[in-house]
Amino acid sequence: MKHTETETRLSGQSPPEVPQVDITLTVNGISHSLQVDTRVTLLDALRDHLGLTGAKKGCDQGACGACTVMVDGRRVVSCLALAAQCQGREITTIEGLSTDGELHPMQAAFARHDAFQCGYCTPGQIISAVCLIEEGRAETEEDIREFMSGNLCRCGAYPNIRAAIRDVKAAVHDVKGES
Amino acid sequence: MHPFEYALARDADQAVAVATADPHTSFLAGGTTQLDLMKDGVLQPGRLLDITRLPLKGITHTDTAIRVGALTTMEELAADPVVRDRLPFVREALLLGASTQLRNMATIGGNLLQRARCRYFRDPTVPACNKRNPGSGCAAIDGIQRMHAILGTSDHCIALHASDVAVPLTALDAVVHTQGADGTRSVPLTQFYLPPDDTPHVENVLQHGELITAVEIPLLPAAARSHYIKVRDRVSYEFALTSAGVAVLIENGLVQEARVALGGVGTIPWRAWDAEDVLRGAQATTEVFRSAAEAALAGARTLPGTAFKVDLAKRTLVRTLETVAGAQS
Ligand SMILES: Cc1cc2nc3c(=O)[nH]c(=O)nc-3n(C[C@H](O)[C@H](O)[C@H](O)COP(=O)(O)OP(=O)(O)OC[C@H]3O[C@@H](n4cnc5c(N)ncnc54)[C@H](O)[C@@H]3O)c2cc1C
Ligand code: SF4
Ligand code: FES
Ligand code: FES
Fold this sequence. Notes:
The complex is a heterodimer of chains A (179) and B (329). With 179 residues, chain A is of the alpha+beta class. In chain A, 34% of the residues lie in helices and 15% in strands. Chain A has 2 domains: 16-96, Ubiquitin-like (UB roll); 105-176, DNA polymerase, domain 1 (Orthogonal Bundle). Chain A has helices at residues 5-10, 42-49, 105-112, 122-134, 141-147, 158-176, and strands at 20-27, 30-37, 68-71, 74-77, 90-92. Chain A has a 5-stranded mixed β-sheet, sandwiched between helices. In chain A, strand 3 (68-71) and strand 4 (74-77) form a beta hairpin. In chain A, helix 3 (105-112) packs across helix 6 and helix 4 runs parallel beside helix 6 (158-176). The longest helix of chain A is centred in the C-terminal third of the chain and has 19 residues, at 158-176. The relative contact order of chain A is 0.13. Chain B has a domain at 231-328: CO dehydrogenase flavoprotein, C-terminal domain (Enolase-like, domain 1), CATH 3.30.390. In chain B, strands 4-5-8-6-7 form a 5-stranded antiparallel β-sheet. In chain B, helix 9 packs antiparallel against helix 10 and helix 10 packs antiparallel against helix 11 (308-326). The longest helix of chain B has 19 residues, at 308-326. The A-B interface holds A 2-5, 16-19, 21, 37-39, 41, 60-62, 65, 68, 71, 74-77, 80-82, 84-85, 128, 131-132, 135, 137, 145-147, 149-151 and B 1-6, 24, 28, 30-32, 35-36, 39, 41, 44, 46, 48, 50, 52, 75, 98-102, 104-105, 235-237. The structure holds flavin-adenine dinucleotide, iron/sulfur cluster and FE2/S2 (inorganic) cluster (FES) (2 copies). Flavin-adenine dinucleotide (FAD) binds next to strand 2, helix 2, helix 6, helix 7 and strand 8 of chain B.
């Protein structure tokens, strides 16, 4: 038989036992062991259990991209992954992009191009943008638009976000000796 | 979210046995449908069985088909070189769906089993929804209908099947391989989905606990000349209002082979058999393409909110046929 939480509370019964899991998460190269409610998403584990509040909760439904992080080098929405599912995976958040206090080139480019207003979508945008270049999808303006479409920006900073991406993309070409 | 137990499936046999024995156990793949609907309170399984570590990932090729493990992600399938060369409309349909983040999570098995986007289905505070609560009625039929179906509907449900990639896969007669309590079986995608009739909560032929292990996609000559067009309310990252997946082989101006399926219009991914009959052997002209589109939509049943889809779907199909024919002339 099924009860919703509300039904159970209203009926005065003791709340159903909430299953827990012991998990180990590797985030930005550091391994963390924790016990969480099975319902905890990767996003909630990062924010509420590990204090990594860079990834943001926008919609909590996979629709806005504010919670984007990398799992095994690929961008995902952390609000639709269970923390328990991510054991043994390499998780990278916005906090893990900078090295020795030096900003990642994409972070620096976002700052240079003023690619944000309120900043709420920014950590997700930056992680997505880093992956976009890795995926080889920053070749054309059209591709940048299409393959960044999973990251919404309520402030409409899109033109500056694309400018930042183009900048980093051009720099990558310079380093590789391409034109 | 309703509390649930979490368990990791050890192997396919164990996963099938555990889920078959317990009606409250659901499989968890990419989670992009399953967790989404659990957050909304639409689904309340007592246990999630995580199948993501099962060895059902990866693509194997033969001369006549590719076999896609059920846990292969949408991005992985789109990146496959054979898909790129010989199944362009499969790749297009994949990449026009969801976002890169979601495609990195979403599996091909889960994609085929994604649930209706009907706003009333997804809102448990709405009492009437035959799909969520059999026998309770259908709020959409008297409600707001924009994202609903016009083909294969019934008086009990008009929810759309929203998968993009299922459209080209239906056109190609892809085959779903499963493992259940009674062993393995193979079901063509054209027989996999069930129209709502008076049981909209039964969406496909799978038994509870039956696992999709792979999807086999035939490599037809026509599929190398294929195209998928998706029409949406915004340019990107949106479900289809209408879409068309078309594979045609044209020689000397005559259509030798035609495979046609439509998205955004059917309660199931819609194979347009009647359109194929019009096309096969006919001249590859816009006139013929229009007749094919008329045939495809002849059975449409609309409501005020979905009436616009008839014309839009016809134009989408004509445009897709013209594009493929144009590339071959
Ligand atoms: C914001 C958003 C936008 C989207 N846009 C699009 C779009 O434009 N086009 C489109 O086509 N889709 C779109 N989707 C849907 C998305 O493609 C599906 O949610 C996804 O493909 C489901 O795959 P999954 O692996 O995440 O499945 P899950 O959510 O893990 O599972 C879905 C269902 O299938 C069952 N299941 C999963 N794998 C198996 C298996 N191997 N055997 C048996 N049962 C199984 C699960 O128990 C569950 O009931 C969108 C989703 C979101 C959240
Ligand atoms: S269309 Fe189907 S899913 Fe939507 S409210 Fe009606 S019965 Fe439910
Ligand atoms: S919070 Fe995850 S996509 Fe919006
Ligand atoms: S900067 Fe405000 S949402 Fe993007």
